[in-house]
Amino acid sequence: MTAEQLAGHLRAFQDAADDHDGNRAVGTAGYRASVDHVVERLRAAGYDPRVQAFTVPYDEDHGDYHDDHHDEETVTERRVTYNVLADTPTGDPDSTVLVGAHLDSVPESPGLNDNGSGAAGVLAVAEALAGTDTRNRVRFAWWGAEEVNLNGADHYVSDLRANDPGAFDDIALYLNLDMIGSPNYGRFVYDGDTSGGGWHDDSVEAPAGSEAIEAALEGYFESVEMAVEEVPIDDGSDHLVFAEAGIPVGGLFTGDTGEKTRQQAARYGGEAGEDYDPCYHSACDDLDNVDLQVLEEMSDATAAVVLGFASSTIDDGARLRPPDGWPRRSALEELDPVLTGLVALGVLVAATAAVAVAVRRRARVRR
């Protein structure tokens, strides 16, 4: 994985917005162009992607999408949108490692950091792991309508539970990428064991096993000597759907409207007292709003941890554990030659150790 590879996907998402009224929101041509790019790149990498259609309630009088709990009297129609899914051809489907990111933007924004960055990261990981034999199946997902009350991920989980409960039970864990290229970034890992403090009204209880995902991510960053901090698992992105369904969750994040502290500025660089992403949900969230260095770092971490879980024994019915041999650097290097390359690409020396911090989030506002 390289910054150039990630930038190529971001440029495609920028073009999708530029060519279609400046955004990639649910139900728009800009969103469909984003779907087409993901599908095209997956096919080129040898995958057989599936496009899952679903509908979102739309209020034509106000030009607004709503969640399904909104007053139905204001809903004039239901519009079609899409999730994209792709599986590795090898690996045990009974222990599926699921990694995903939402693909849609808000209507006011091209959404390159929120969440072109996460979508590009998942796509680059899929490309990097194409052709790699794994013990467990890996499923890559791009969710639609995250910005409309997590409709895409909710449809996926609800559909599996209703129509293929065995496949739902096969999901061993879910790893979420949302806003992983913030221009005034911090490196944040979801707090799967609630040890980091800073919990607030929007925090959700992490299912058992979530601590193993946190440990794997923190072990990776320790192995490449990068500082990282924990943030509470809140209700701001697609991981909420999986957490509420009892699936272990984890994820990466580089900040939205919270202000960077002086300690974080010393640790990561950037400007203290300024938002991690000053263009959050705004028209300026374009290609220039993404920090490619941190996007590459977070994507490399994702690839390492996904491959770690995909290459390890996951006991059916047992509490999820960190990948075999984690977090020794030697264990990372033994997993696969692909992973060795990913680790080498990610090395940076951090100045200080990680400390716990609470990142201010907007209640019920989707990243």
Automatic annotation (TrEMBL):
GO molecular function: metalloexopeptidase activity
Membrane-spanning intervals of the chain: 338-359
Superkingdom of source: Bacteria
Keyword Transmembrane helix: yes
Keyword list, A-Z: Membrane, Transmembrane, Transmembrane helix
Any one GO BP annotation for this protein: proteolysis
Residues in Peptidase M28 domain copies: 83-305
PANTHER family found in the cross-reference section: METALLOPEPTIDASE M28 FAMILY MEMBER, PEPTIDASE M28 DOMAIN-CONTAINING PROTEIN
Protein name according to UniProt: Peptidase M28 domain-containing protein
Taxonomic path: Bacteria, Bacillati, Actinomycetota, Actinomycetes, Micrococcales
